[in-house]
Amino acid sequence: MTRAASKGATVGGAVGVAHTHVDGRDKVTGAARYAAEIPFAELAHGWLVLSAIARGRVRSLDMAPVLRMPGVLTVLHHGNAPRVGNDYMTLLGVPPDPTVALFQHDRVPYLGWPVAVVVAETSEQAREAAQALVVHYERQPHDVEFNGARPDAYPLDTYEPAVVEKGDLAAQLAASAVVVDAEYTTPEEHHHPMDPHAATARWDGGRLEAVDSNQGTANVASELARLFSLDASSVRVRSEIVGGGFGSKEHVRAHQVAAAMAASVPRRPVRVVLTHRQMFSLVGYRSPTVQRVRLGADADGRLRVLEHRSLNLTSSMHDWVEPCTQGARVMYDADAHHTSHRVVRLDVPTPTWMRAPGEAPGSFALESALDELAEKCGLDPIELRVRNEPRVGPVSGLPFRPRRLLACLREGERRFGWAVRDRATGGLVGADQAGYHFAANADVPLIEVDWVDDPDPDDPVGIKGIGEIGIVGAVAAIANAVWHATGVRHRHLPVRPDRVILPGATDA
Question: How many Cβ atoms are within 10 Å of 202's Cβ, its own excluded?
């Protein structure tokens, strides 16, 4: 297949033709070599030591006994590590994660902050020595309590304004025949790919080579060059096979910096691999959220009010917004349309991108509220959405180019047999609630994916990226299906069997 591009160029064989995944066979047969498995001559191993307190300072480290342990080559910490510079913007236009300023000060901003790296001949020796290293701390009061009533929350602009408002909210609420006002919460989520975050660094004169598992070698190479004050041409990063990242491997993290620092001491390659336990504090995560949605509508379901306000946590060192309300700004129109993002600083690791940032947790709250409104109005939930489909951007006023949401709804309606479904609510679908979770991919039934043609004339192959779409809106649909099946409404994730069967769990 060859599709004409908008500027006269053509792209051949990109769409509509079967292609073999270049590393697919190696992955499924076990032949693939991931970043932690690529051999190097004279390879040494680093193991990170993480803080055992939630906030404070490192007073001292008992290094002498550790340095006498078998195979130990060195221990790096804030008192002897190379200096790095983290005053830069990444290629994605955001500041680096605070953990890249590795061993640059004695402060401990949260539990699991890197305080040292032990380098040894083998991974086992490095791990044993790291576990034996005694670190003395000065403890300070910490705050990790996240809830929707935090008085110190503040709005924070990102690539979109934190607050976007049009129309008189109070007047339109007063004029609404039907109102939904509910709070929705989502828990924190961690990436934890099966392929761990792993990096091997090697210095050759003034040149740095790194073999890494990442989602953007250009990003990682650029950051390493800036951190170690190198010319961009002096840094080479290879990422041959990646077994998952989900946003956590977009940028440089502590393990890459630790490997590069450690390799400069014995002047031999050093590998640092994170354990899954270490990933909880070192590679970012999706922040938990508290979201309030207020919808006001006429009796026929036409929206007068759409208010969506979201709160997420961030670290004490770095601002991060989970932009949950950006979906509301384009999905549905209303006479009064108010959205906002707020954050609260806590003594916790900094969140980061995770698949469908903002839209995934945000769509749960917004679409769940729409389903509740449909119930109150006595309307089919698809019909409610059709009645509130905007012709232009609800807050921008800009035309869509194009927008095929209604075509998706209608096609899904046809394929699901929505019009002839059983509309009864209440009662459990099967008595064994424990059987509702999926233990493995083999347990998941066949999933059909269908497409509505939506060509993009400005893309050389005429298509649009859809990588994030599969998890946007799906949770709200599942929660609504659970309500239809059991009569229990879920506004707080995760949806669990115990939250269905507990007495009085009408708002699980």
Answer: 22
User: CA-to-CA distance for 471 and 466, rounded, in angstroms?
Assistant: 11
| pLDDT tens, per residue, the chain with 508 residues | 334 344 445 555 666 788 888 888 998 899 999 999 999 999 999 999 999 999 999 999 999 999 999 999 999 999 999 999 999 999 988 889 888 999 999 999 999 999 999 999 999 999 999 999 999 999 999 999 999 999 999 999 988 999 999 999 999 999 999 999 999 999 999 999 989 999 999 999 999 999 999 999 999 999 999 999 999 999 999 999 999 999 999 999 999 999 999 999 988 999 999 999 999 999 999 999 999 999 999 999 999 999 999 999 999 999 999 999 999 999 999 999 999 999 999 999 999 999 899 999 999 999 999 999 999 999 999 999 999 999 999 999 999 978 889 998 998 888 888 877 675 445 444 434 454 454 566 767 777 777 788 877 887 777 776 666 667 888 999 999 999 888 999 999 999 888 888 755 555 5
CB 221 within 8 A of CB 233: no
How far apart, in Å, are the Cα atoms of 235 and each of 35, 42, 87, 363? 17, 21, 19, 41
Closest by alpha carbon to 373, among 427, 432, 298?
298
Sheet containing strand 107-108, strands side by side = 107-108, 56-62, 134-139
**What residue has token string 């400069």?**
264
